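I am still getting used to backbone structure tokens and would like to learn alongside you. Label the sequence line and the structure token line clearly, so we can match residues to local backbone shapes. Would you write everything just below, so we can both look at the same thing?
***
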Amino acid sequence: MASKASILEAARGEFAMHGYSARLQDIAERAGLTHPTLLYHFKSKERLYAAVIEQAMMDWAEMTSLAVSAAPVGFDRVAALVRAAVEFFATHGDFVVIWRREAIEGGGRLEDAMAEHMRPFLDRAIAFLEREIEAGRLRAHDPGELMQIVYGAVSTYFSDAGFRARLFGGDPMSIEERERFGAALTAMLRDALAPR
């Protein structure tokens, strides 16, 4: 019998490919289950979709917690969080597609739930940035807008990877290209934020 993790993996793939219109029957087949067995684990498509989002947010929490513990203050923490964001999106390709589709379609299916999951991360990040500005370890800026800029840059890098490859050549998903992008973003942020 398929594990919860394998069901979620199958669901991520189908939701990424077909959006919310993905069929539960197809998800069940991809996970090696029958449709009734899938419904036994997840009572509805909405609950399964919510579980996909929740799992991604748990992964995000784990990755950012490790980054924060490794670099507790100043710009080093900003750089560590950029590295964590790049790593998260690199290892959650299906989720990138699902997330962007939700943002573009704005159907409201899980926008509130997604915002609810992200709000604690955003609040902690903004509070950290405000403390670092107050302590003089970062230059003054608008922390909320900074978070939006970084999120937009990183998520677009991955959601538009195919387009980027056609424009610039190379494989945006290769470790070398991801590190190059992360280094460029970090350098721009350092120029903007690090005290002179």
User: Anything to note?
Assistant: The mean pLDDT is 88. The chain has two domains: 1-43, 51-193. The longest helix spans residues 45-70. Residues 1-43 form a domain with the Arc Repressor Mutant, subunit A fold (CATH 1.10.10.60).
